[in-house]
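Per reviewer request, we include the raw input and output of the structure prediction for the construct analysed in the revised manuscript.
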Amino acid sequence: MAVTLEEAPWLGWILVKALMRFAFMVANNLVAISSYICYVIILQPLRLLDSKRFWYIEGIMYKWLLGMVASWGWYAGYTVMEWGDDIKAVSQDEAVMLVNHQATGDVCTLMMCLQDKGLVVAQMMWLMDHIFKYTNFGIVSLIHGDFFIRQGKSHRDQQLLLLKKHLEENYRNRDRKWIVLFPEGGFLRKRRETSQAFAKKNNLPFLTHVTLPRIGATNIILSALVARQENGSPAGGDAKELKSKSKGLQWMIDTTIAYPKAEPIDIQTWILGYRKPTVTHVHYRIFPIKDVPLETDGLADWLYQRFVEKEALLSHFYETGAFPPPKGHKEAVSREMTLSNMWIFLIQSFAFLSGYMWYNIIQYFYHCLF
Protein backbone atom coordinates (compact mmCIF):
# COMPACT_ATOMS: atom_id res chain seq x y z
CA MET A 1 0.00 0.00 0.00
CA ALA A 2 1.46 3.35 -1.05
CA VAL A 3 2.17 5.96 1.62
CA THR A 4 0.77 9.41 0.91
CA LEU A 5 2.71 12.59 1.61
CA GLU A 6 0.36 13.41 4.49
CA GLU A 7 0.91 10.02 6.12
CA ALA A 8 4.71 10.04 5.84
CA PRO A 9 5.44 12.19 8.96
CA TRP A 10 3.05 10.11 11.06
CA LEU A 11 4.57 6.83 9.89
CA GLY A 12 8.06 8.25 10.49
CA TRP A 13 7.12 9.12 14.05
CA ILE A 14 5.65 5.66 14.61
CA LEU A 15 8.94 4.10 13.45
CA VAL A 16 11.09 6.37 15.60
CA LYS A 17 8.87 5.75 18.62
CA ALA A 18 8.99 1.99 18.06
CA LEU A 19 12.80 2.03 17.89
CA MET A 20 13.02 4.14 21.06
CA ARG A 21 10.62 1.81 22.89
CA PHE A 22 12.57 -1.24 21.73
CA ALA A 23 15.85 0.27 22.95
CA PHE A 24 14.29 1.05 26.33
CA MET A 25 12.83 -2.47 26.57
CA VAL A 26 16.27 -4.01 25.92
CA ALA A 27 17.90 -1.79 28.55
CA ASN A 28 15.03 -2.44 30.97
CA ASN A 29 15.42 -6.20 30.55
CA LEU A 30 19.18 -6.11 30.94
CA VAL A 31 19.18 -4.21 34.22
CA ALA A 32 15.99 -5.66 35.74
CA ILE A 33 16.47 -9.36 34.97
CA SER A 34 20.19 -9.28 35.74
CA SER A 35 19.52 -7.54 39.06
CA TYR A 36 16.77 -10.04 39.92
CA ILE A 37 19.17 -12.94 39.33
CA CYS A 38 21.90 -11.29 41.42
CA TYR A 39 19.52 -10.64 44.31
CA VAL A 40 18.28 -14.25 44.18
CA ILE A 41 21.87 -15.53 44.29
CA ILE A 42 22.89 -13.29 47.18
CA LEU A 43 19.76 -14.31 49.15
CA GLN A 44 20.43 -18.07 48.94
CA PRO A 45 21.57 -18.24 52.61
CA LEU A 46 18.16 -16.82 53.58
CA ARG A 47 16.52 -19.56 51.52
CA LEU A 48 18.21 -22.14 53.73
CA LEU A 49 17.42 -20.32 56.99
CA ASP A 50 13.91 -19.04 56.26
CA SER A 51 12.47 -20.40 53.01
CA LYS A 52 9.11 -18.66 53.41
CA ARG A 53 10.69 -15.22 53.77
CA PHE A 54 13.00 -15.88 50.82
CA TRP A 55 10.09 -16.75 48.50
CA TYR A 56 8.15 -13.74 49.77
CA ILE A 57 11.00 -11.41 48.77
CA GLU A 58 11.47 -13.24 45.46
CA GLY A 59 7.73 -12.89 44.79
CA ILE A 60 7.81 -9.14 45.39
CA MET A 61 10.69 -8.77 42.89
CA TYR A 62 8.78 -10.98 40.45
CA LYS A 63 5.72 -8.75 40.80
CA TRP A 64 7.87 -5.70 40.08
CA LEU A 65 9.30 -7.33 36.96
CA LEU A 66 5.81 -8.09 35.67
CA GLY A 67 4.84 -4.53 36.56
CA MET A 68 7.59 -3.27 34.27
CA VAL A 69 6.23 -5.38 31.40
CA ALA A 70 2.76 -4.02 32.16
CA SER A 71 4.10 -0.46 32.04
CA TRP A 72 5.30 -0.89 28.44
CA GLY A 73 1.70 -1.36 27.35
CA TRP A 74 0.34 1.22 29.79
CA TYR A 75 2.44 4.03 28.30
CA ALA A 76 1.49 2.95 24.78
CA GLY A 77 -2.16 3.52 25.70
CA TYR A 78 -3.11 -0.16 26.03
CA THR A 79 -5.41 -0.20 29.05
CA VAL A 80 -7.81 -2.68 30.63
CA MET A 81 -11.51 -2.47 31.51
CA GLU A 82 -12.72 -5.11 33.98
CA TRP A 83 -16.21 -6.61 34.16
CA GLY A 84 -18.10 -9.12 36.23
CA ASP A 85 -17.09 -10.31 39.70
CA ASP A 86 -14.53 -8.38 41.75
CA ILE A 87 -11.61 -10.79 42.11
CA LYS A 88 -9.94 -8.62 44.75
CA ALA A 89 -12.38 -10.24 47.18
CA VAL A 90 -10.59 -13.60 46.77
CA SER A 91 -7.04 -12.30 46.30
CA GLN A 92 -5.83 -13.92 49.53
CA ASP A 93 -7.33 -17.34 48.80
CA GLU A 94 -6.06 -20.08 46.53
CA ALA A 95 -7.57 -19.94 43.06
CA VAL A 96 -7.17 -21.07 39.45
CA MET A 97 -7.75 -18.64 36.58
CA LEU A 98 -9.18 -20.26 33.43
CA VAL A 99 -8.34 -17.90 30.57
CA ASN A 100 -9.19 -17.96 26.86
CA HIS A 101 -6.13 -17.61 24.65
CA GLN A 102 -5.99 -15.49 21.50
CA ALA A 103 -2.44 -14.09 21.31
CA THR A 104 0.77 -13.47 23.24
CA GLY A 105 -0.71 -10.17 24.43
CA ASP A 106 -3.10 -12.12 26.68
CA VAL A 107 -0.21 -12.72 29.08
CA CYS A 108 0.76 -9.04 29.09
CA THR A 109 -2.87 -8.07 29.67
CA LEU A 110 -3.05 -10.31 32.74
CA MET A 111 0.27 -8.95 33.99
CA MET A 112 -1.33 -5.51 33.89
CA CYS A 113 -4.79 -6.14 35.28
CA LEU A 114 -3.56 -8.25 38.23
CA GLN A 115 -1.05 -5.68 39.47
CA ASP A 116 -3.60 -3.99 41.75
CA LYS A 117 -4.85 -7.26 43.27
CA GLY A 118 -2.60 -7.32 46.33
CA LEU A 119 0.07 -10.04 46.34
CA VAL A 120 -1.64 -12.15 43.68
CA VAL A 121 1.14 -11.63 41.10
CA ALA A 122 3.87 -12.31 43.67
CA GLN A 123 2.26 -15.61 44.69
CA MET A 124 1.15 -16.68 41.22
CA MET A 125 2.23 -19.68 39.17
CA TRP A 126 1.85 -19.58 35.39
CA LEU A 127 1.34 -22.59 33.16
CA MET A 128 2.66 -21.59 29.75
CA ASP A 129 3.95 -23.05 26.50
CA HIS A 130 7.51 -24.37 26.73
CA ILE A 131 8.65 -21.93 24.03
CA PHE A 132 8.52 -19.14 26.65
CA LYS A 133 11.36 -20.89 28.46
CA TYR A 134 13.70 -19.64 25.74
CA THR A 135 12.63 -16.00 25.89
CA ASN A 136 14.33 -13.25 27.86
CA PHE A 137 11.89 -13.85 30.73
CA GLY A 138 12.42 -17.62 30.78
CA ILE A 139 15.14 -17.61 33.45
CA VAL A 140 12.92 -15.53 35.74
CA SER A 141 9.98 -17.92 35.33
CA LEU A 142 12.23 -20.92 35.99
CA ILE A 143 13.46 -19.40 39.25
CA HIS A 144 9.97 -18.33 40.30
CA GLY A 145 8.60 -21.82 39.69
CA ASP A 146 6.31 -21.37 36.69
CA PHE A 147 5.65 -24.51 34.65
CA PHE A 148 6.45 -24.84 30.96
CA ILE A 149 4.24 -27.36 29.22
CA ARG A 150 5.04 -28.97 25.88
CA GLN A 151 2.03 -29.33 23.58
CA GLY A 152 1.22 -32.35 21.41
CA LYS A 153 -0.27 -35.81 21.84
CA SER A 154 3.14 -37.47 22.01
CA HIS A 155 4.12 -35.40 25.04
CA ARG A 156 0.74 -35.15 26.81
CA ASP A 157 0.93 -37.98 29.36
CA GLN A 158 4.52 -37.23 30.30
CA GLN A 159 3.79 -33.52 30.67
CA LEU A 160 0.85 -34.18 33.00
CA LEU A 161 3.05 -36.35 35.22
CA LEU A 162 5.68 -33.62 35.27
CA LEU A 163 3.01 -31.05 36.14
CA LYS A 164 1.78 -33.15 39.06
CA LYS A 165 5.34 -33.50 40.37
CA HIS A 166 6.00 -29.79 39.87
CA LEU A 167 2.90 -28.80 41.86
CA GLU A 168 3.78 -31.17 44.70
CA GLU A 169 7.34 -29.86 44.92
CA ASN A 170 6.86 -26.15 44.31
CA TYR A 171 3.31 -24.86 44.79
CA ARG A 172 2.95 -24.81 48.57
CA ASN A 173 6.67 -24.92 49.34
CA ARG A 174 6.93 -21.53 47.64
CA ASP A 175 3.67 -20.23 49.13
CA ARG A 176 1.87 -19.93 45.80
CA LYS A 177 -1.81 -18.96 45.79
CA TRP A 178 -3.05 -18.56 42.21
CA ILE A 179 -2.47 -20.56 39.05
CA VAL A 180 -3.00 -19.09 35.57
CA LEU A 181 -4.08 -21.71 33.06
CA PHE A 182 -5.01 -21.46 29.37
CA PRO A 183 -7.09 -24.65 28.98
CA GLU A 184 -7.44 -24.35 25.20
CA GLY A 185 -3.81 -25.39 24.86
CA GLY A 186 -2.89 -22.85 22.18
CA PHE A 187 -3.93 -19.71 20.35
CA LEU A 188 -7.46 -19.43 18.94
CA ARG A 189 -6.31 -18.94 15.34
CA LYS A 190 -4.20 -22.11 15.49
CA ARG A 191 -6.67 -24.39 17.25
CA ARG A 192 -10.08 -23.25 15.98
CA GLU A 193 -10.30 -25.51 12.92
CA THR A 194 -9.10 -28.60 14.81
CA SER A 195 -11.42 -27.86 17.72
CA GLN A 196 -14.45 -27.45 15.46
CA ALA A 197 -13.68 -30.72 13.67
CA PHE A 198 -13.37 -32.49 17.03
CA ALA A 199 -16.65 -30.94 18.20
CA LYS A 200 -18.48 -32.05 15.06
CA LYS A 201 -17.13 -35.59 15.34
CA ASN A 202 -18.04 -35.95 19.02
CA ASN A 203 -21.33 -34.01 19.05
CA LEU A 204 -19.88 -31.23 21.22
CA PRO A 205 -20.60 -27.47 21.10
CA PHE A 206 -19.43 -25.75 17.91
CA LEU A 207 -17.46 -22.66 18.98
CA THR A 208 -16.09 -19.74 16.99
CA HIS A 209 -14.61 -17.22 19.43
CA VAL A 210 -13.00 -19.83 21.69
CA THR A 211 -12.00 -23.48 21.30
CA LEU A 212 -12.93 -26.52 23.35
CA PRO A 213 -10.75 -26.74 26.46
CA ARG A 214 -8.41 -29.60 27.21
CA ILE A 215 -9.08 -31.32 30.51
CA GLY A 216 -5.73 -32.83 31.55
CA ALA A 217 -3.96 -29.92 33.25
CA THR A 218 -7.11 -28.76 35.08
CA ASN A 219 -7.73 -32.31 36.31
CA ILE A 220 -4.15 -32.60 37.62
CA ILE A 221 -4.35 -29.22 39.38
CA LEU A 222 -7.62 -30.07 41.13
CA SER A 223 -6.49 -33.56 42.17
CA ALA A 224 -3.23 -32.18 43.56
CA LEU A 225 -4.42 -29.01 45.29
CA VAL A 226 -8.05 -29.38 46.35
CA ALA A 227 -8.23 -30.21 50.06
CA ARG A 228 -10.13 -33.49 50.41
CA GLN A 229 -12.87 -33.55 53.03
CA GLU A 230 -13.47 -36.28 55.59
CA ASN A 231 -16.36 -35.95 58.03
CA GLY A 232 -16.54 -32.21 57.58
CA SER A 233 -12.83 -31.44 58.06
CA PRO A 234 -9.80 -31.55 55.78
CA ALA A 235 -8.35 -35.02 55.47
CA GLY A 236 -5.20 -35.89 57.31
CA GLY A 237 -5.57 -33.77 60.43
CA ASP A 238 -7.68 -32.95 63.46
CA ALA A 239 -9.27 -29.63 64.40
CA LYS A 240 -6.16 -28.38 66.20
CA GLU A 241 -4.15 -28.64 63.01
CA LEU A 242 -6.60 -26.76 60.77
CA LYS A 243 -5.03 -23.34 61.27
CA SER A 244 -1.62 -24.56 60.17
CA LYS A 245 -2.91 -26.37 57.10
CA SER A 246 -3.75 -24.92 53.73
CA LYS A 247 -7.45 -24.79 52.92
CA GLY A 248 -6.54 -25.88 49.40
CA LEU A 249 -7.97 -24.38 46.25
CA GLN A 250 -11.12 -22.43 47.03
CA TRP A 251 -12.07 -20.72 43.77
CA MET A 252 -12.14 -21.14 40.01
CA ILE A 253 -12.03 -17.78 38.22
CA ASP A 254 -13.44 -17.97 34.72
CA THR A 255 -11.59 -15.19 32.90
CA THR A 256 -12.59 -14.00 29.42
CA ILE A 257 -10.38 -11.59 27.48
CA ALA A 258 -11.97 -9.60 24.65
CA TYR A 259 -10.30 -7.23 22.19
CA PRO A 260 -12.19 -4.58 20.19
CA LYS A 261 -13.13 -5.88 16.72
CA ALA A 262 -11.67 -9.26 17.74
CA GLU A 263 -8.17 -7.96 16.96
CA PRO A 264 -5.86 -9.27 19.70
CA ILE A 265 -2.65 -7.56 20.79
CA ASP A 266 0.58 -9.50 20.38
CA ILE A 267 3.81 -9.09 22.33
CA GLN A 268 5.47 -7.16 19.47
CA THR A 269 2.71 -4.55 19.58
CA TRP A 270 2.96 -4.37 23.37
CA ILE A 271 6.70 -3.66 23.15
CA LEU A 272 6.86 -1.40 20.10
CA GLY A 273 3.55 0.42 20.63
CA TYR A 274 2.83 0.94 16.92
CA ARG A 275 -0.89 0.22 17.30
CA LYS A 276 -3.22 3.02 18.30
CA PRO A 277 -4.28 3.12 21.99
CA THR A 278 -6.91 0.49 22.71
CA VAL A 279 -8.87 -0.85 25.66
CA THR A 280 -8.82 -4.60 26.32
CA HIS A 281 -11.84 -5.92 28.21
CA VAL A 282 -11.57 -8.68 30.83
CA HIS A 283 -14.60 -10.42 32.33
CA TYR A 284 -14.42 -12.43 35.57
CA ARG A 285 -16.80 -14.98 37.03
CA ILE A 286 -15.92 -16.66 40.34
CA PHE A 287 -17.01 -20.23 41.14
CA PRO A 288 -16.54 -21.90 44.56
CA ILE A 289 -14.41 -25.00 44.20
CA LYS A 290 -17.15 -27.05 45.88
CA ASP A 291 -19.29 -26.45 42.78
CA VAL A 292 -16.64 -27.89 40.45
CA PRO A 293 -16.85 -31.66 39.79
CA LEU A 294 -13.61 -33.48 40.56
CA GLU A 295 -14.27 -36.63 38.55
CA THR A 296 -13.00 -36.50 34.96
CA ASP A 297 -16.34 -36.74 33.09
CA GLY A 298 -18.07 -34.22 35.31
CA LEU A 299 -15.12 -31.84 35.09
CA ALA A 300 -15.09 -32.11 31.30
CA ASP A 301 -18.79 -31.19 31.12
CA TRP A 302 -18.26 -28.32 33.55
CA LEU A 303 -15.34 -26.91 31.54
CA TYR A 304 -17.20 -27.26 28.26
CA GLN A 305 -20.09 -25.29 29.76
CA ARG A 306 -17.72 -22.52 30.85
CA PHE A 307 -16.41 -22.17 27.31
CA VAL A 308 -19.91 -22.20 25.86
CA GLU A 309 -20.58 -19.27 28.20
CA LYS A 310 -17.36 -17.59 27.04
CA GLU A 311 -18.59 -17.94 23.46
CA ALA A 312 -21.83 -16.18 24.38
CA LEU A 313 -19.96 -13.45 26.28
CA LEU A 314 -17.64 -12.77 23.35
CA SER A 315 -20.45 -12.85 20.79
CA HIS A 316 -22.33 -10.23 22.82
CA PHE A 317 -19.17 -8.14 23.22
CA TYR A 318 -18.32 -8.15 19.51
CA GLU A 319 -21.88 -7.13 18.67
CA THR A 320 -22.32 -4.40 21.30
CA GLY A 321 -18.87 -3.43 22.58
CA ALA A 322 -19.78 -4.48 26.11
CA PHE A 323 -20.29 -7.65 28.09
CA PRO A 324 -23.88 -8.60 29.02
CA PRO A 325 -25.16 -7.85 32.53
CA PRO A 326 -25.29 -10.63 35.13
CA LYS A 327 -28.56 -12.43 35.66
CA GLY A 328 -30.97 -10.28 37.63
CA HIS A 329 -29.29 -7.01 36.60
CA LYS A 330 -30.30 -4.54 33.93
CA GLU A 331 -26.81 -3.29 33.11
CA ALA A 332 -23.25 -4.55 33.30
CA VAL A 333 -20.88 -2.41 35.34
CA SER A 334 -17.29 -2.00 34.18
CA ARG A 335 -14.26 -0.92 36.21
CA GLU A 336 -11.28 0.85 34.70
CA MET A 337 -8.02 -0.71 35.85
CA THR A 338 -5.21 1.80 36.48
CA LEU A 339 -1.50 1.64 37.21
CA SER A 340 0.17 4.17 39.48
CA ASN A 341 2.67 6.26 37.54
CA MET A 342 4.58 6.92 40.76
CA TRP A 343 4.80 3.19 41.51
CA ILE A 344 6.06 2.51 37.97
CA PHE A 345 8.66 5.27 38.37
CA LEU A 346 9.85 3.81 41.68
CA ILE A 347 10.22 0.21 40.47
CA GLN A 348 11.94 1.32 37.26
CA SER A 349 14.29 3.54 39.27
CA PHE A 350 15.05 0.64 41.61
CA ALA A 351 15.79 -1.61 38.62
CA PHE A 352 18.20 0.81 36.96
CA LEU A 353 19.91 1.74 40.25
CA SER A 354 20.26 -1.95 41.10
CA GLY A 355 21.70 -2.64 37.67
CA TYR A 356 24.25 0.14 38.17
CA MET A 357 25.13 -1.18 41.64
CA TRP A 358 25.59 -4.80 40.49
CA TYR A 359 27.65 -3.67 37.50
CA ASN A 360 30.06 -1.85 39.80
CA ILE A 361 30.23 -4.75 42.26
CA ILE A 362 30.96 -7.28 39.49
CA GLN A 363 33.48 -4.93 37.88
CA TYR A 364 35.25 -4.47 41.24
CA PHE A 365 35.61 -8.21 41.84
CA TYR A 366 36.69 -8.75 38.25
CA HIS A 367 39.55 -6.25 38.66
CA CYS A 368 40.48 -7.80 42.01
CA LEU A 369 40.72 -11.29 40.49
CA PHE A 370 42.21 -10.43 37.12
